[in-house]
Amino acid sequence: LKPPVRVAVTGAAGQIGYALLFRIAAGDMLGPDQPVILHLLEITPALPAAQGVVMELNDCAFPLLAGVVTTDDPNVAFSDVDFALLVGARPRGPGMERKDLLEANGAIFGPQGRALNKHAKRDVKVLVVGNPANTNALIAQANAPDLDPRCFTAMMRLDHNRALSLLAEQTDTHSTGVKKVTIWGNHSATQYPDISQATIDGTPAAQKIGRDWYETTFIPTVQQRGAAIIKARGASSAASAASAAIDHMRNWALGTADGDWVSMGIPSDGSYGIDAGLIYGFPVTCSGGTYTIVPNLPVDDFSRRLMDATADELRGERDAVKALLG
Ligand code: NAI
């Protein structure tokens, strides 16, 4: 076994936390030879519930679980962490405008960014799940000036996995046969699920599915899947979100498969004409613990329009939280 690594999870007593912690402790995220020490961050009133989760974690007697720290102090939660999954966020309440939501979350992700800046390992891998994920990641990153901005990512992987599964279902194959799908932009209804480079069992996706189904069914179904889950379940996606977070971190830490890529929300370096610094969903490959944007993909007019629309939304979000970006 390797020496243990420290993995912080915020919102540990929430729905996603409950689906996520047990899989991390079981080795699904970092592999069967990597012990973990979990650092759980919750708000003070939720600490008793978090303690209940710790009791259950202990009751699993996981071979890879090397310790658990539970706290309501981000400075403790992020001390020496190698990984941080920022799940806890302020949900949208009745009558709350998007701007109010962004500001309420700024009050969470600004201080968490500063605590990561002070206390985390210098090569910490941060994944923001809590919505609005891309802009929350931007706020955290902007408040962590001593860390490489590339330490901060936002979750597009649930959208990516939804797209794989929907394409597989439509073509009567398995999701493992679907490669090179990209979710560009924001984790929101403006995201652009792009199959222009995708293959299904080795054949270009465009030859297997009709353009009409792609534009009028596939894209809106992926964009609206979160709302459909809420309608069906009466609660937002939790196990699938946790599973996507595991996939995101595993690929980032351990690499992506040859001949394929994944979608990650990462600070733009200006690639594909997207403003540098925006946390935007790109196609990436990962190796040796770093991610690289897939270069030189052709972008047709249809793609350009949708990629720009989701970038516009992210620019608007960035402007709405300007005061929090330091
Ligand atoms: P939940 O409400 O069940 O749990 C959130 C937990 O975060 C609560 O226990 C709460 O006490 C805690 N929390 C709130 N503020 C905190 C703070 N400052 N520090 C630490 N903990 C804090 O919500 P759920 O279902 O677990 O979802 C969490 C977030 O993930 C939501 O913002 C949701 O919109 C988002 N989400 C994102 C997805 C994505 O694909 N990026 C997919 C699904 C959900």
UniProtKB/TrEMBL annotation:
Catalytic activity: (S)-malate + NAD(+) = oxaloacetate + NADH + H(+)
Source domain of life: Bacteria
Record has Disulfide bond as a keyword: no
Domain Lactate/malate dehydrogenase C-terminal per the UniProt entry, residue ranges: 157-323
EC number assigned by the record: 1.1.1.37
Top EC group: oxidoreductase
Positions annotated to bind NAD(+): G11, A12, A13, G14, Q15, I16, G17, N105, Q112, V129, G130, N131
GO biological process terms held by the UniProt record: malate metabolic process; tricarboxylic acid cycle
Lactate/malate dehydrogenase N-terminal domain location: 5-148
InterPro entries assigned: L-lactate/malate_DH, Lactate/malate_DH_C, Lactate/malate_DH_N, Lactate_DH/Glyco_Ohase_4_C, Malate_DH_type2, NAD(P)-bd_dom_sf
Function: Catalyzes the reversible oxidation of malate to oxaloacetate.
Protein name (record): Malate dehydrogenase
Species this chain originates from: Endobacter medicaginis
Gene name, Swiss-Prot/TrEMBL: mdh
